[in-house]
Amino acid sequence: MSRVLGSLIIVLLVWSSAMAEPSCPKVISEVAPCLSFLRDDGPAKPSKRCCEGVTEVNGIAKTKQDRIAICECLKQTLNYIDYDPKRIPLLGKQCGLTIDLPPTGQNTNCSQVAY
Asked: What are the Bifunctional inhibitor/plant lipid transfer protein/seed storage helical domain coordinates in residue numbering (predicted)?
């Protein structure tokens, strides 16, 4: 009986962690190398580390809820940083990804993100 209960708890823990939205600290740590690119006076191309982070975040954005959570995280974090929202859509293209990132800003409605 206790083995069955223990196994059930393990299955539920694994399932719940697989169903969890991406964590904001993870998203921020992955895209942090992109900050210099996102500034108005940033380099013309994102760094290799930036592209690796964007690729990682793209990989964890499996559902619409994931994309909303990532968008909300970026929206809240970028609120404290001087950046050019128009440079965000360039990340996917310049990093070789086939995603359309919205120009995330203070007024972005994350529930409508489609990437």
From this structure: 24-110
Give the whole-angstrom CA distance, residue 89 versus residue 102: 6
Give the whole-angstrom CA distance, residue 98 versus residue 54.
Answer: 12
Nearest to 50 by CA among 94, 103, 99, 108: 94
CA 21 to chain centre: 10
pLDDT tier, 38 (very low <50, low <70, confident <90, very high otherwise) = very high
Task: Write the DSSP symbol of residue 79.
Answer: T
Q: Please state the pTM of the whole predicted model.
A: 0.76
- Token code pair at residue 99: 């995603």
